[in-house]
Amino acid sequence: MGLGTSLVLIAIGAILEFAIRVSTPGFNIHTVGTVLMVVGALGVLVSLMFWSSWGGFGNGARTGTRRRVVEEDIP
Question: Rounded to an integer, what distance in angstroms lies between the CA atom of residue 36 and that of residue 6?
C-alpha cells in the first residue's frame, strides 16, 4: 500500500466517521470509518519507514549490468 492509497483511506474514513449522519441496525458506519482511518494511518507510517529504501521513481540509480555492443565492419 502506497502513500497515496493510505491518504485516500484516511479521507474516506474521515468522511464516514464525521460527515455521514445515519444509523443502521446491526451495522455501524462510524466504526468502519474509524477502522479505515487507523489502517490508513498505519499505511502512512509503513510507507514513510520504507521510503528511503525504496527511493521512488526516477532517482537516477540504475541496477543491473551494462552491455556494450561493438559492431565490426566486414569488408
Answer: 9
